[in-house]
């Protein structure tokens, strides 16, 4: 009987695998069309400073609205694009679009803070990555302080020295660097002292249970304290409630992002949001 069940499980497993494989092939083909027609959009989520409540940054988040399949999450299609190499043209589009839209805001006289772009490991490892950042800034006449990049610990996985050297060059350019999803990777903490970074972003998974799980609270407070001792800025991701915000504030977190403050929004809504913010801040 056990044998039969085993076989059944195997059957399930292969069916599931086949389905996922076919889905991936389909998505890859659809991605290709979307890249060729630039069927993507950037949404922007504000970063809020704790003490002043001011918007001190924006994060660009990639959005893909498929004509038949509807909204597809970047968490689904970015890994596929990384496997197929499609991430290269796609991330070039993201970098340029983020710069162009920020340039447009500034040209329209809208007070806009810096924009952070999420950088895929595949993109980061390319030989001309730093050059592509420099070119995008030049093309849209932006200062390096206008741009921030968010990388994950994964970029350090193989060839750590090369990665650090690249970060150094970005730092020399004047671009701010954040470690995204901090605390979820498996790399050693000792790398932190070697990195020319400015900010760590505490992963949403810790923030979620911060008021109900003392372990998440302890990890979060540990990250904040350690980061501050290393003179790094700390951003909390995924803040959804006032209680979470209060707890983080009491723990001396510097900046916040999350639905409690603002959801990611399309460019037109962002314009209005920034103008409303500017009006609110007038005496
Ligand atoms: P991430 O960089 O850690 O971005 C934060 C994610 O959390 C975003 O999901 C954002 O919409 C979501 N979020 C923000 N506040 C809240 C909140 O209060 N509650 C909840 N439940 N979620 C919140 P999104 O936009 O679906 O992006 C998922 C991931 O996909 C990103 O994680 C990033 O790793 C990747 N990604 C997004 N855009 C790009 C891109 O342009 N390039 C690359 N390479 N990756 C991207
Ligand atoms: Mg990010
Ligand atoms: Mg993150
Ligand atoms: Mg995250």
TrEMBL record:
<feature type="domain" description="EAL">
    <location>
        <begin position="24"/>
        <end position="278"/>
    </location>
</feature>
<protein>
    <submittedName>
        <fullName>Response regulator receiver modulated diguanylate cyclase/phosphodiesterase with PAS/PAC sensor(S)</fullName>
    </submittedName>
</protein>
């Amino acid at each position: 009987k056990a044998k039969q069940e085993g076989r059944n499980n195997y059957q399930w497993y292969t069916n599931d695998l086949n389905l996922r494989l076919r889905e991936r092939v389909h998505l890859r083909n659809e991605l290709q069309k979307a890249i060729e027609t630039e069927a993507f959009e950037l949404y922007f989520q504000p970063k809020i400073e704790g003490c002043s409540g001011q918007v001190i940054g924006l994060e660009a988040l990639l959005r893909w609205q498929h004509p038949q399949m509807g909204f597809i999450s970047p968490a689904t299609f970015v890994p596929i694009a990384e496997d197929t190499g499609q991430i290269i043209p796609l991330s070039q589009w993201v970098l340029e679009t983020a710069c162009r839209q920020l340039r447009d805001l500034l040209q329209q006289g809208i007070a806009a803070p810096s924009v952070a772009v999420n950088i895929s490991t595949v993109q980061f490892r390319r030989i001309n990555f730093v050059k592509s950042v420099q070119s995008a800034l030049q093309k849209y006449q932006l200062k390096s302080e206008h741009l921030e990049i968010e990388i994950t610990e994964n970029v350090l996985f193989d060839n750590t020295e090369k990665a650090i050297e690249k970060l150094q060059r970005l730092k020399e350019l004047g671009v701010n660097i954040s470690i995204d999803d901090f605390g979820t990777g498996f790399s050693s903490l000792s790398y932190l002292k070697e990195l020319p970074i400015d900010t760590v972003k505490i992963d949403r998974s810790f923030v979620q249970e911060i008021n109900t799980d003392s372990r998440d609270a302890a990890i979060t407070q540990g990250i904040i304290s350690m980061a501050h001792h290393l003179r790094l800025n700390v951003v909390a991701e995924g803040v959804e409630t006032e209680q979470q915000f209060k707890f983080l504030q009491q723990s001396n977190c510097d900046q916040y992002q999350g639905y409690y403050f603002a959801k990611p929004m399309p460019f037109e809504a962002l314009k209005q949001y920034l103008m409303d913010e500017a009006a609110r801040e007038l005496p």
